[in-house]
Design a protein that fits this description.
The complex is a heterodimer of chains A (about 280) and B (about 220). Helix content of chain A is about 35%, strand content about 25%. Chain A is an alpha/beta fold and about 280 residues long. The N terminus of chain A is likely disordered. Chain B has eight helices and no strands. Classes of the chains: A alpha/beta (about 280), B mainly alpha (about 220).
Amino acid sequence: MSPTDGHGNAVLRVRGLNKSFGSNTVLRGIDLDVPRGKVVALIGPSGSGKTTILRSLNGLETPDAGTVTVGARGTAGNGAAGGAGAGGGAGAVPQLPELTLDFGAKVTPREVAALRDRSAMVFQHYNLFPHMSVLQNIIEGPVRVQRRPRAEAVAEAESLLERVGLLEKKDAHPFELSGGQQQRVGIVRALALKPQLLLFDEPTSALDPELVDDVLVVIKELAEEGWTMVIVTHELAFARQTADEVVFMDGGVVVERGPASQVLRTPREERTQAFVRRLLHEI
Amino acid sequence: MDFNLFWSSLGPMALGAIQGTIPLALASFAIGLALALLVAMLRISRNKVANGVGRFYVSVIRGTPLLVQLFVIFYGLPALGVKLDPWPSAIIAFSMNVGGYAAEVIRAAILSVPQGQWEAGHMIGMSRGQTLLRIILPQAARVSVPPLSNTFISLVKDTSLASLILVTEMFRVAQQVAAFSQEFMLLYVEAALIYWVICLILSTAQSQLEKRLDRYVAH
């Protein structure tokens, strides 16, 4: 089913996002488009505003101005629903109409909830629920919020856990897992919500170096499966291999954007060049 | 000293503890905790009025002696036409007192849960209330067991004040026997011992509860 939203195939469309914390302006007129099934990597120095964008897309931050539009989701679609078949085939994803939040006006809690129906986030520090088992962590949203049948949610959670190689840990508690395992559970928790848009906030920054690859492999697989994703990352090699588009930010503005290989191999802007050089050579 | 009196008074005093001290403490603590949760909600609310009401309540409770609170309710309220029996007066006063102190404990415990837990709750689609109930409070509960145990142990001992508004609890029994026999030292030390034993049992229960709640926390 083709989207009839008039924005082509875009799952996400951000226009003119502005945000200040007190006198500190962190976003200055950000535009961002993410086509269905594509992966956009946000890179840039810390404080450049990339995490603030991501958090705005999950309603964890309220921009001062600008709009965020998430395109409609149809009933079926070849991977358009994001990871069709990801949940072991049980239960179709619900249809969702197009949603636009205008932050220039007052955004209601209902609108924020609607945004969270459509996007799910993987946090830098995992933020798993320590008092719940791995399985409970994953089915909490589907069962308590989305009111899906428990048996169905458990079956989907188990099949997702199997995919990331953690099925035997389903009854463990987060403190019993390594950072890499916790982050893979964090990814499964996000997937179980069946979002249209997956958001990753520096998903490997808190990990020991030897655990980074386990997590990146999972994200790369999701990209190949056709999930629509926005990833904030400092892993440039990963961004080059996984992202369709790379957006370089600095000082709250987009400095340069383009195909991953172009921005990361032959950046046009001086600031991008300096940043990429620093990250690739400095250790 | 008449040590036979120690043994012969032990029965009535234990009965006073079982029928007076312990139910008074349990009922007041249960109601007080519910009240505390409510006040803690007001205190963490973003609403300025709600916040102010919570702050005022805690300030009054913590800023006035428990004995005065008891007396206002039992001896003072009749002047306004509200005449309460000793038991309800005691339960109201102790509950309100626990409510003030425990509210601060619960508030601090809620604030000690990392902000990321709120965000993860919101991320999976939960409202503020749902996140509080399912994600934050279970984690806050662990943190608040030691300070709330303190509050409960203090409460058990404070119930002796209820003897002054004619509630027949353990200490009032001790006073009556002492007045009759003139064996003040014996009976008040005996009362002290009984309080101590009750508090020892409570401390043990506290460590058991802490161990239970510690299961899912890394050390």
